[in-house]
UniProtKB/TrEMBL annotation:
Official protein name in the record: Uncharacterized protein
Region (Disordered): 572-614
Biased composition (Polar residues): 580-593
Coiled coil stretches, renumbered: 46-118, 188-327, 353-480, 506-564
Taxonomic superkingdom: Eukaryota
Keywords, ordered alphabetically: Coiled coil
UniProt keyword Coiled coil present: yes
Organism lineage: Eukaryota, Metazoa, Ecdysozoa, Nematoda, Chromadorea
Amino acid sequence: MEMKKTDNLITGLKDRQKVVPSVWTPLLKIWMSDLLKFESLSLSDEQLLKEQLDCAHATIAELQNALNTQTMRSDDNTQLLKTIARQQEQLIKVNKRCESLEMELANSQERNDLLEFQILELQEFSAGRTTPTPFITASVETDKYVDIDDCDIIAYAKMDPQTVFKAKNHLREMRRLAYLTEDDREFLAIVLQHMENLENKITLLETEQNMTRCELKRLELQKQDEIDELKRQLDEFSSKDKKKKALQQENEKLKKQIQKQEKLQEELRKKFQANEILIKEKNDKISQLENEIKNAYRCSEEKENELKRAKMQIEHLQRQIEEITKNHLADLEATKKHFEDRLKESFNFKNDLDKMRIAYDKVKEEKAQLEQKLQTFQKQSQEKIQKLDEELQNVRSAFDEERRRLEEEIKKAKTKNTELEKSNREYSNAYAKMEKEIAEALRKEKENNEKLRKELNDENEKLKKQLAEAYVEMEDLRSQIRPIGTQLERRYEEMRYRWDESLKKIHNFENLLKTANERIEELEAKSKSVESYVQEIEQLKTYNHELEEQFNAQMDIIAALKKKFIQMNGANNNKDHNSSESVGWTSNSTVNSLDDEVYSSEGSGSFKESRNHA
């Protein structure tokens, strides 16, 4: 039974929790957690359950008191709102009443102004009627009126009560005058009565005005006090309302923050899981990329090593080629000297043979020895010829490469030449256009200047003629000296005006001439810039001519190299045919081979020269 009671209490508290404000929710949660903990205990712990029930009843009572206080505060707040609305309505009514009173004051002030103006008019009228008149006789016209200025009326716009009193006494005395008619006296009596009525009205209006002012001041003070009280109440209510709203907003913010945090936790969990999956994928990709990068680095290092090796081999080959060329040149020079010595020896030997035909028997043995030596020498020469053929093939390959390079350079030079020709044509066309434009501009400027000069000369001649005519007229007028000074002055003024106008025109024409001269100077400066362009074009032409000369020289060098190459091929073929003939013929072939070697050495030198020239 007690467990059922606790369950009912828990359910009731859960239902109450919806009504209880959010301030007490954490306490209820704590207490609920304690109750749930104690549910797990055995039924023997009845005392603890009773204590928990007492605590629950105490908390429920406290919560009910808090709810009652909050309901009371809400009722007070509603009452305050109603009173504020009433006070606002009263304020609106008071403002309307103040506006109506202000309108009445304005109307009363206008009436006062009208009354004062009427009083002033009456006073002025009375003052005008009471002016002292002279002794009336039959010859004086009494129907005429006396002139009165408006300034005199304005002077009496603001009068003291003493002046008003004096005016009234004066009017009373005027009524007693004997020469007045009864109508005048009645009119003066009406005026005096009207003045008294107006004074009475003014006094009444002043008293009413003072009363209304006092009432307005009292109402303003009263309403100001009420407004201050209402403002104070509004401030208190607004502060309470603000606190309440702030607490509600804080509670709502906390709830929203809790919800957001829960959502964020869920989203973070999802993102964390997704990120873990992505991280695994990225790590796999990174590992793959690292392996690929390592392989690429290895390949690049291997390629770099291969390139380094190739460079080293190329450098080594270049060095070997240079050494071989040097050694070959040295060998060629040595063979040259050796063959020259041998030629000299052979010529000496022939002379000795001619001289020593008598001792032919003795020389046979030496001849056999010499034949053996010649065979050995022939073998050596054939080996050297084979070596030279191999070197010639290498030279031919290098020559082919150099020829290809030269042909490419020739093509590039041709393209550059065409481009330079195009640019030269463009510059020449632009130069021709500029010359035409400058010539046309100069011609137009010259024509304009000539026109201006003609116009100026015509104007100057006209002005000179006019001046001469004017001087003639002046001299004629001076000689005649007739009484027509006005006409002469007029003519003089006209001539002076014409003279001034002519001076102005001359000044304007001088300004036009200055502008024309400045324009001519600008055109001359432009012509100087055109001359600089012409100089640049001439420089380009010379540069183009030099390139053409270089191109022609390269073509001549290539033609000479081709001829030498053809001659070298013919010489090599002749050597192959002559290698199988007799000893005497071998001596001639050796001479021819020497000549060919000399020619080839000259050709190699020319090749080097052409290469350096290129």
